[in-house]
Amino acid sequence: MSKKQIIKLILLNLIIAFVNVILFSRGFIGLTLEGNALLVAFAVTEIVMSVIAFGYGNYKILFSEPQEEIKLLKGGELNETKNYLEALIDCHGKKVLDKYLDEAMDQLSRLQEKDKALDTILLQYFQPTEMTYIKFQGVIDSVQQLFYNNIKKMINRVIIFDDKDYQRTIEKINKLRYDPHSPSSQAGRQMQIYEEQIDNIKGIVDDNELILVKMDTLLNEIIKLDDMSGQELENTDVMREINSLIEQTKFYKQS
Questions:
Q1: Are the C-beta atoms of residues 16 and 54 closer than 8 Å to each other?
Q2: Which of 128, 142, 149 minimizes the C-alpha distance to 239?
Q3: What pTM value is reported for the model?
Q4: Residues 6+ away with beta carbon under 8 Å from 13
């Protein structure tokens, strides 16, 4: 039982008790089951109404399905990797999306491993105060920020996805046996919206997978530093692709 339910139960029963005290107390209205027929009828009606209010009110509070509050992430709620993992875990329960959430959690774990590997290898070739190290670390940090922003977008889209209505729409389509993609059917239009939301979430997972692949490629290029200079590494295809990816993201944020 939630805290809100407990508060509602206490308030409901206090109000019922207070009303009956006022109505039946001799110091106030003084209803009674004896004497004047009109007062007796009013007293009986009040008792019946109190019983109904008590039974129905308590039942509704105890057994009604609590309305879920939608709270989207705004920006500062997630500061560490564990916060992102916890948020992804909390989003579980919408069956059609759970596999993407699991993939995102796996990607977060892989990102941490790649970050440690990149940092370790860079430190083997450069000092933390060298411009080359600072530049590469800045690029890696920007890529990670892009990755985490994608996770944040994914979480918000999972939060607003109405899984119960999605399941009802599927049942309706199966029951009526019409084409779920038919634009002429209301259920078909609704299903198209849900499929678009699912594709957007899958697309975010794919984007982050591409980021991890580029980090792997960068790691492989850094290992070759024995055969090339830092300047040559900066001019490799993977560095150009990563910088292009970061610039595209900045553009999307500004537009």
A1: yes
A2: 142
A3: 0.65
A4: 54, 58
Helices (H), 35-162: 37-63, 81-90, 95-125, 131-160
Residue 242: Cβ within 10 Å count: 21
Instruction: Give the pLDDT means over successive 10-residue stretches in the chain (255 positions).
Output: 74 84 75 73 82 82 60 68 89 92 95 90 83 82 90 92 90 70 69 93 95 86 64 65 61 42
Is the distance from CB of 177 to CB of 195 less than 8 angstroms?
no
Report the alpha-carbon distance of residue 107 to residue 112 in Å, rounded.
Answer: 9
- Whether residues 209 and 104 share a domain: the answer is yes
Residue 81: name the closest of 103, 111, 114, 102 by CA: 111
Question: Considering the domain boundaries, does residue 19 fall inside one?
Answer: yes
CA 111 to chain centre: 21
| 137 shares its domain with 208 | yes
Domain count, the chain: 2
> What span, in angstroms and rounded, lies between the C-alpha atoms of 154 and 148?
10
**For residues 115 and 140, is the Cβ–Cβ distance under 8 A?**
yes
The C-alpha atoms of residue 255 and residue 245 are separated, in whole angstroms, by: 16
Show the domain range for 52.
Answer: 3-63
Helix then strand count (H, E) for the chain reads: 9, 0
DSSP structural state of residue 99: H
Quick one: the chain helix, strand, coil %, rounded to 5?
80, 0, 20
